[in-house]
Amino acid sequence: MSDSQVTEAGSARGTGAVGRLLAFAGQRRVLTYIGCVLSATSMVVGFGPYICIWFAARDLIAVAPNWSAATDIAMYGWWALGFAVGSIVLYFAGLMCTHLAAFRCASNMRKRATEHLMQASLGYFDTRASGALRRVVDGCAAETEGLLAHKLPDTAGSIAMIAGMLVLFFVFDWRLGVACLVPVVVSLACMFYMMGGRGMDFMTRYMESLVKMNKTGTEYVRGIPVVKVFQQTIHSFRAFHDAIDEFTVLAQDYAVKWCQTPQALSLTFISAAAVFLVPVVVLVVPGETDVVNLAANFAFYAIFSAVIPTAMTRVMFMSEAFQSAADAVTRVEEALAAPVIKAPAVPKIPQDNGITFEDVSFTYEGADEPALNHVSFTVPAGSTVALVGPSGGGKTTAASLVPRFWDADSGCVAVGGVDVCQMDPHSLMDRVAFVFQANRLFSQSIFENVRAARPTATREEVLAALSAAQCDDVLAKLPDGIDTVYGAEGIHLSGGEVQRLMIARAILKDAPIVVLDEATAFADPENEIKIQAAFKRLAHGRDGIPRTVLMVAHRLSTVRAADKIVVLDHGRAVEQGTHDELVAAGGLYARMWADYERAVSWRISSAERGVE
Questions:
Q1: What mean pLDDT value characterizes the chain?
Q2: Residue 441: CB partners within 8 Å, gap ≥ 6?
Q3: Which helix (H) or strand (E) holds 86?
């Protein structure tokens, strides 16, 4: 998304929902205006048949019972047909215009939201549920289509219809016009009551409830395998069930407690509009000098009153659509306001691939305590440094600051002597390869999954990376080898096997800096041995030159050979040194190592001997 697009969308926030939506339609916004004009014209032309009916009724009543004397009836009929056809053609043309604009608007909303999120820091997605983001990108854009394609032209038509009604109410007989105006006023008052302040508040809470249901539903579906294993179906369903209940109660309270009476009153009045004409006619007939003309006017107003329910219903749905669209565009704008990784005006080039943390502090949004508190350490180019410590000590946070998943609040994270914020983001990402604790494969072939690290890689290069990552046994058991589609026909892999594929992806990228975050977390002993072998290959690159490796680990056996170990506790670097130095120091690392040695010697024996 370009800066001009962001500015355009942002500047539109000061206008109403329609203006903010049309900012996404680009040049096609003019089609929306044309469509609304055509729709309004269609409604005005649609009054033609009613007027023709009035002329026909007037002529017939004037010559009654000599009906044959009314010679212009056929002409009125043809005129009515022409008006009806013209109204349909104009309305169809208007909808064509608004649909073209609506589709472009929804498409641009999706594209801009997606493009903007692609530039957002990866840390942003750690704090946002995927279901909620999907709802914003796809669901909110879809909601705006109905407004621009149908509701907006119908709104223009409704305004023209109401204006035309007011004119016609008083053109032929103002007394009967006032009678027809009574149900219109009552209906509008009921709508304003339903759609007023509390109505807008309801729509906001309604959309929030939909997002919550979507989020909890997505999380529940993804967790079904774990839920079934532990037989926690009822308890795990509670969050989703509560979200559904919350939405149900909200909708029922609004529909029954708030809208039931005014809605019933509105429908009663507009549906029985013709009834209000009867007492007026009864009152005015005794003093009326032209009873024939009054009868013709009564026939016209009785027939024309059928238009009132249509006009009022359109106004009602128009209000609902505007409320829904205003909430949708607000949510899309919130996504467009997500912080992005900003590129410096003049990017700097690192001198080497060493990493430096200099007095770095960082606090997650909404957290009371900092995740990192004045942390300083160095990772010399070509060396391996391990981050260890208790859970929640800040290990993963520190590793995440190197590729700018987040930006430090204070201090400096530098690569090759250059602050990462002063580097071009694409250049920085090209320098760093990742292997996360939790990885996810795409529903594509193994070949495409690995080649995602370098889309220009050849098949031979991908195979070489897989072999270096100890994945030969994985490919051997797959029905189509490297071309097997993951997830298709029940093809799934263990956590350790997926981890090796992720290492193959990192090997293929061949970046000078490697960040490993609990990469052996899901590995069994057999997989761990192969993953360790793959790490050695990854740490030396294809050219044999040692890479700069920053690894986060809980298994202390994997970090003994590290050039340096940094111990993080409560966001602070409390110890630094080699394995032997830290064990000799007798500090936190020494205690962790002692606990680890006791844990690896723990075993289950016979019932008589118990647990040792």
A1: 80
A2: 449, 486, 487, 493, 498, 501
A3: helix 73-119
Confidence of residue 604 (pLDDT cuts 50, 70, 90): low
Query: In whole angstroms, what is the distance from residue 467 CA to residue 446 CA?
Result: 13
Q: Are 410 and 436 in contact (CB under 8 A)?
A: no
The residue type of 283 is L
Q: Which two tokens stand for residue 384?
A: 């391996």
d(CA 515, CA 385) in angstroms, rounded, equals 10
What separation in angstroms does the CA of 169 have from each of 93, 126, 173, 267, 305? Answer: 29, 61, 7, 20, 10
Q: How far is CA 456 from CA 205, 409, 461, 467, 514, in A?
A: 47, 37, 10, 19, 20
Residue 4 has a pLDDT of 43
Instruction: Tell me the whole-structure pTM to 2 decimals.
Output: 0.61
Backbone Cα Rg of the chain: 36
CB burial of residue 360 (10 Å; 0-12, 13-18, 19+): buried
Q: Containing H/E element for 551?
A: strand 548-552
- Taking 70 as the threshold, does the pLDDT of residue 606 lie above it? no
Give the 3-state secondary structure of residue 553: coil
> What is the C-alpha to C-alpha distance for residues 50 and 301, in angstroms, rounded to an integer?
9
List the structure tokens of 167. Answer: 């004119």
391/397 Cα distance (integer angstroms): 11
Per-residue pLDDT tens over the stretch 135-187: 677 777 777 787 788 888 888 888 888 788 778 777 777 788 788 778 878 88
CB 296 within 8 A of CB 57: yes
Q: Token pair for residue 276?
A: 């209000």
Do you know the residue count of the chain? 612
Distance of alpha carbon 89 from alpha carbon 101, whole angstroms:
19
The position carrying tokens 């990462």 is 420
Q: What angle do CA 490, 496, 502 make, to 5 degrees?
A: 90
Q: Indicate the DSSP class of residue 455.
A: T
pLDDT in tens, 248-269: 888 787 777 777 788 788 778 8
pLDDT of residue 378: 94
> What's the number of CA atoms in the CB half-sphere (13 Å) around residue 354?
13
- Cβ–Cβ contacts within 10 Å for residue 429, how many? 17
Long-range contacts of 496-499 (CB under 8 A, 24+ apart): 496/522, 496/523, 496/524, 496/526, 496/527, 496/528, 496/530, 496/531, 497/471, 497/527, 498/439, 498/441, 498/522, 499/435, 499/439, 499/523, 499/527, 499/531
Separation CA 378–CA 364 (nearest Å): 23
Enter the DSSP assignment of 436.
Answer: -
Greatest Cα pair distance in the chain: 122
Count the alpha carbons within 13 Å of 556 in the hemisphere toward its beta carbon.
24
Task: Please give the single-letter amino acid code of residue 97.
Answer: C
